[in-house]
Amino acid sequence: MPDQSWIAVDAMGGDEGLAVMLAGVARARRRHEGMRFLLVGDESAIAEGLKEHPNLRQASEIVHAADQIGSSEKPSQAIRRARTTSMGVAIDLVKQGRAGAAVSAGNTGALMAMAKLALRTLPGIDRPALAAPLPTLGDNDVIMLDLGANTECDARNLVQFAVMGAAYARTILDLESPRVALLNIGSEDQKGTDEIRDAAAILRGANHLPLTFTGFVEGDRLARGHHDVIVCDGFAGNIALKTAEGTARFVGDLLKRAFRSSARSKIGFLISRPATELLRDHLDPNNHNGAVFLGLGGIVVKSHGGANELGVATAIGNAAKMVRADLTRRIADDLGNFEKAA
């Protein structure tokens, strides 16, 4: 049983460097007083950085790792160096039971490969999936998976993703029976590939699971807030995610250009500033940061490489919540119940 009070953090991962990672961990510590951290990376550099965060220094231990994974390094190369890298050591701390979860902002492909090799998939899971929360117009975020770990999926994979995603939504969003939908090119029953239609047929009959299957959802309805979990293969999911992120940046840039276009527009900006700041905060990816590899024998969270202090703290907070809720056991139990009924 992993120690639920400790989170292993790859302090050397991420585009913004060690200073931002430590600031994010310190912020998470202020939010959650009971959390403790294993900070993995260059011992001397981390010790120097901790001088800026006395509250964090009292709640953390440094685990030295001489190397780090490059942003462009191939997963096959990274695996060979796992034992000496900050990313690999952080994952191994979860495997050893010294930490309840590992958090890294490093190379996604390397993190996935290392986590799968070290922690293995849960019994009955064919493939792990990458899941993350996305903002909506509803009362809560929507969980979407897979976001790129599996480019091709059959009906069984999609059903397993639905089970895992629902368990994740119950944990992060505090929902009893999350509304689950399959991403498709139309809402009609006859639309989509054989795999999607077969998965839908299975989920419609899964009344014993703690989820509510709501059918198909099209891409233009992802953020309406009508669903809690949206399931798709990694190819479609990654495209949908990048399109949503690009659209959010486009809207933000368009608003900036419009407000700067004339003196009247600048006055309008001052009047509407509270509303525009609310919009900015709602769309800020740092408020929704932290993708998790579901289906593994341990919790590994991927923070966005460009996340700021707030984003790192958000990812760590989500990781801690998953550990406290024993998400890995929840997924195993739900899948076991599904297999028995099937």
What name does CATH use for the topology of the largest domain?
Isopropylmalate Dehydrogenase
**Count of folded domains:** 2
Largest sheet: 11 strands, mixed
Radius of gyration: 21 Å
Q: What is the general shape?
A: globular
Overall CATH class of the largest domain: Alpha Beta
Going across the biggest sheet, name each strand in turn.
Answer: 3-2-1-4-11-10-5-6-9-7-8
Percent helix: 40-55%
Full CATH superfamily name of the largest domain: Isopropylmalate Dehydrogenase
Work out the helix count. Answer: 12
Q: Helices, strands, pairings?
A:
Elements: E1 6-10, H1 18-31, E2 36-41, H2 43-49, H3 54-57, E3 60-64, H4 75-80, H5 86-96, E4 101-104, H6 108-119, E5 129-134, E6 142-145, H7 155-172, E7 179-183, H8 194-204, E8 212-217, E9 229-231, H9 234-259, H10 263-283, E10 291-294, E11 299-302, H11 309-324, H12 327-341
Task: Please give a structural write-up.
The protein has 342 residues and is an alpha/beta fold. Helices cover 47% and strands 15% of the residues. The chain folds into 2 domains: 1-121 and 295-325, Isopropylmalate Dehydrogenase, CATH 3.40.718; 126-287, Isopropylmalate Dehydrogenase. It has an 11-stranded mixed sheet with strand order 3-2-1-4-11-10-5-6-9-7-8, sandwiched between helices. Helix 1 (18-31) packs across helix 11 (309-324). The radius of gyration is 21 Å and the shape is globular. It starts with 5 loop residues before the first strand and ends with a helix.
